[in-house]
Amino acid sequence: MTVVLQVSDTHFGTEQPFAMAALERLCGDLQPDLLLVTGDITQRAGADEFTRARAFFDKLGVAARLVLPGNHDIPLFDLFTRVFKPYERYARAFGTALEGEFERDDLLVIALNTTRRYRHKHGEISRAQIDRVAERLARAGPQQLRLVAIHQPLAVTTDADIDDLVRGHERAMRRWAEAGVDAVVGGHIHLPYVLPLRERWPELPHPVWAVQAGTAVSSRVRAGIANSVNVIRVAPVRSAVVERWDVDETAGVFRQVLSTAIAGGRSVEP
After folding, report:
1. In this model, does residue 264 exceed pLDDT 90?
2. Is pLDDT above 90 for 40?
3. Is the pLDDT of residue 242 over 80?
4. Is 15 exposed, middle or buried (0-12, 13-18, 19+ CB in 10 A)?
5. Cα distances (angstroms) measured from residue 244 to each of 111, 125, 258, 261
6. 6 Cβ neighbours under 8 A, 6+ residues apart
7. How far, rounded to the nearest angstrom, does the alpha carbon of residue 45 sit from its chain's CA centroid?
8. What is the mean pLDDT of the chain?
């Protein structure tokens, strides 16, 4: 069984040591196969923030990782760098690749960069990206769970977050569903949830899920929700269990608070 640890919105520059220590402990216990970081690694795209983030991710000791930039990982106030070298500091820490893949017999993860230097916080999925991802999904093996990872959300739960939807989300959702995507994984809004997207788009040819993570180690928590990460445990034949783990500050550990099975169009919550 492949295990994915999804960590999002770490916002280094606002990191909390107790949450970092708890996440390191959780990672050691879980021994995940993939560390998936879905953006907003830093608070202000500072070189020192990227350095601390890289050191922390290295310390987690996960053999494979996919790291996506978020809108906070492009300089906001340094306009020259934002326009001409928006990913320079990111690249120093994590390499020049802004997208990537992870593949096993039971899992395919496609990580897609949705940030744009000409946008402040809003993300965008271009037609070229939609087509490229759809073509790759169509080549996935029959036993592979198919995930697309982005930063900004594809679906939200509150009216206040509608403006944060990634631009091009409806076009992407319909095309990727036709190509066989099983779930779209994201962050950005610091709210963890799992949504069955067929309830919103009944015309989708099969069940598809939106899996959102909270903020992993930052003080920028929202709605009374503690620091939170997702653990995705791949199950046989294109299914999985998504576990939400929230930090218990008093005990200094992450604890599982919710488990959602994503398979066959049903959500099972014990």
Report:
1. no
2. yes
3. yes
4. buried
5. 20, 27, 5, 12
6. 36, 37, 38, 185, 211, 213, 229, 230, 231, 232
7. 18
8. 94
